[in-house]
Amino acid sequence: MATTQPQPDILIRPLVDRDLDEARRIIRVAFATFLGLPTDDPRMGRDSDVAGTRWKTDPASVVAAEHADRLIGSNFATNWGSFGFFGPLTVEPEYWNRGVAQQLLAPTMEIFQRWGSRQLGLFTFAHSPKHMALYQKFGFWPRDLVAVMAKQGGDERGVPLPDTTRFSEAAPDDRPQILAACREITDANFEGLDVGSEIRAIAGQNLGDTILVWDGAKLAAFAVCHRGPGSEAGSGVCYVKFAAVRHGRRASERFERLLDAVEVYARAVKAPKVTAGVNLARREAFQALIARGFRTEMQGVAMETGDATSGYNRAGVYILDDWR
């Protein structure tokens, strides 16, 4: 494959607030063009918003490409403590095959270096050798398939379950302790893993809620859920962006309780569809979703840095996410 040389007349800079509407448009057009779908296809997310939510969480983590005073692409980096991922990385289709994506990736990798991320990942299309070849230049290698799964909920009322609360219900003085408990769970799954930024973003931007399942006074599991228009879910959807359970012999039971709580929450907020991503190396979590009636809507592949045994994509780990 021929190497595409970066263009010197492309300006790489931080994405700023005035760019957001155009960034949203480019994301939609780029994915629709690649997938051969119209931009208004329901599978394109309609009123969901990835660009705005992630930029507001950390504006310094987003890079933009500009040509002739025009935004032509962007890339979003996410900091989960010791783990980081990027995406969506999108470029205006008329600028494809001109090295713009490569120019966006170089400063993105510098962001991860500043953060001290020791493991990196991304979600991409398993059927695209072109995407894989690009990411391999930056040290990412394909690993396991990732299933983005969905389940239509029933009409039952969303009655809260015992030993289940929401982060939004916690008093301000109690929230630091809850964040620490969530960090304890993620750290036990992968040292340094911390999704506190996602929990705070959901609370601060009113994007949904974080569901907390307790064993007495000890946090057993939690799920970070987007729901509704303007979030990463969109209308009528509860999207589990991240979920994790405490390690131990009761992990599978805790996972079932957590999924119960997520479905109850979805019904309570009138989101009849629940979506979640799972790496297929986390086979028990994947099998549990299938057993509950979740079905795969799309598949991608996880690409990661490090060796094949690093990271948290392995059997026995009850985590839901998809790095999109």
Summarize the topology.
Layout: E1 11-14, H1 20-35, H2 50-57, E2 62-67, E3 70-80, E4 83-86, E5 90-91, H3 100-115, E6 119-124, H4 129-136, E7 141-152, E8 164-166, H5 175-189, H6 196-205, E9 208-215, E10 218-228, E11 234-245, H7 251-268, E12 273-279, H8 283-291, E13 295-304, E14 319-320
Parallel strand pairs: 4-6, 11-12
Antiparallel strand pairs: 1-2, 2-3, 3-4, 3-5, 6-13, 7-12, 7-13, 8-9, 9-10, 10-11, 11-14
Helix pairs in contact: 1-2, 2-6
Tell me briefly what this model is.
The chain has helices at about 20-35, 50-55, 100-115, 130-135, 175-190, 195-205, 250-270, 285-290; strands at about 10-15, 60-65, 70-80, 85, 90, 120-125, 140-150, 165, 210-215, 220-230, 235-245, 275-280, 295-305, 320. The chain has about 325 residues and is of the alpha+beta class. Helix 1 (about 20-35) crosses helix 2 (about 50-55) and helix 2 (about 50-55) crosses helix 6 (about 195-205).
Order of helices and strands: EHHEEEEHEHEEHHEEEHEHEE
Mean pLDDT score: 94
- Low-confidence sequence ranges: none
Taken from the alpha-carbon principal axes, the silhouette is: globular
Radius of gyration: 19 Å
Through-space gap between termini: 26 Å
Strand content: 25-35%
What share of residues is helical? 25-40%
Structural class: alpha+beta
The number of helices is 8
How many E-type strands? 14
Q: Main beta sheet: strand number and arrangement?
A: 14 strands, mixed
